[in-house]
Amino acid sequence: MKPGALVELKRVARHFDAGAIRPIEEVSLTVSRADCVSIVGPSGSGKSTLIYLMSGMDLPSAGTVAWKGQTSPSRREWTRIRASNIGLVFQDFLLLSHLNALQNVELAVSPEIGKWKDRRDRAILALQQVGLADRSESFPYALSGGERQRVAVARALVNDPELVLADEPTGSLDTSSAQIVTQLLFDLQSKRGHALVLVTHELNLARQCARQIRLRDGRVEEGAC
């Protein structure tokens, strides 16, 4: 285990349909504290599959995924790890339509925070940090795409995670909104010091990360994009 490593993949593969579909093959990589990493590759190259494996939302067909030295946590252990240590941002926002912005964020607060007021205060602070304090009572249908994604970012960061995984977070946004969201992700990563892994098909965005990883034939190549 490398010093400071959060998540480490060793010779990881993921196969589907009895091995007929093989999006990930022999992947080995490490994401350490405060890393800023981009993952690029063509559609169908396994980028999202890699995010699911790194977060424990999916388990490998072969190889090992370790979290802070704990090799191959169980699904139950991964659920606990995600609840407090991993923030996830997806392309499609995944907000609950019947909850307002504040309630969507509050729902993600770690169950270890038992008092209602403490949970609410955390959610309010997270919305403030993404510039949406004045939209806390708004429901998703009343928010723009960029605002909805900023709520999703607040939800991902509400537990002050050590690792944030963002899977095409600007894929559903117009250019202006995409710039706001990406700058927000980079600014918060710089201020808070968590690791950020950004899946994107935009090379200009990928180059803003300190490390770039390209997926090719189910394997990773590190270097300039």
Q: Would you mind describing this structure in some detail?
A:
By secondary structure, the chain is α/β, with parallel strands linked by helices. The chain has a single domain (5-222), classed as Rossmann fold (3-Layer(aba) Sandwich). The protein has helices spanning 47-55, 75-85, 101-106, 116-129, 145-157, 175-192, 203-206, and strands at 5-16, 21-32, 36-40, 62-67, 70-71, 86-90, 163-167, 195-199, 211-216, 219-222. The longest helix has 18 residues, at 175-192. The protein is globular, with a radius of gyration of 17 Å. The model has no long low-confidence stretch (mean pLDDT 91).
Short description:
Helix content is 33%, strand content 28%. With 225 residues, it is α/β, with parallel strands linked by helices. The protein has one domain (5-222): P-loop containing nucleotide triphosphate hydrolases (Rossmann fold).
